[in-house]
Amino acid sequence: MKLFLDSANLTEIREAMSWGAIDGVTTNPSLVAKEHRDFFPLLKEICDVVNGPVSMETTCRDCSGMVEEGRVFSKLHPHIVVKCPLTKDGLKATRQLSAERIRVNVTLCFSPSQALLAAKAGAYFVSPFVGRLDDVSSDGMGVIRNIKTIYANYGFKTQILVASVRHPLHVVEAARIGADIATMPFTVLEALVKHPLTDAGLDRFLKDWEQLPPEAKQWKSTASKPPNPVSVSATSTG
Length: 238
Ligand code: E4P
Known about the structure:
Number of strands: 8
CATH topology: TIM Barrel
Bound molecules: erythose-4-phosphate
CATH architecture: Alpha-Beta Barrel
CATH superfamily: Aldolase class I
Number of helices: 13
Low-confidence stretches: 231-238
Number of domains: 1
């Protein structure tokens, strides 16, 4: 399963990349607006940092505008995946851009029927928003299960990108269902790492280590010395 960071913040992206856990990034107009920077240079920098797909969202409602933006965005960097909303115009634009071999992430998906249409239009990714569904008392992860079944039934190649992830259990459940990707904010990525027993266990190990006298902890100087030839031959002949 791939994990993406849902962020346009370069500090967060660099930090997450340094953990080796992140395979790509998703952005949206709200996330980009929070950075108070010019859109294009920011996305270009994100693409240079991330070794994988970076989703960049179109910012209009009509098909021709989306297609025009999508063509320009796709030339910015080979990592760019163009996001189109799951509307009639978004589907038309997805069909057009996919035919031009431009990868499209169909976003704002809230139902299995919408996901079916995204796959038929040729989407590279479909992004069902589980958190926003949960917010209105719908079963976000249930939608993921249904999409997974439908795509498997007919062999659709569109990858399921679980979005609007709010907590670690969304990620675990997405992995159990077999979703291709989960994209999450940095706070959720941090929460994936955390476990109180890990922290308590490490505190205990380091406290116990303190009990050793300093001379018994001289690993740096001993590790750099070559092995003693006398003791090596004594062992091998013994
Ligand atoms: C995904 O691509 C979206 O950017 C994102 O997951 C939306 O999440 P939100 O519902 O927390 O805004």
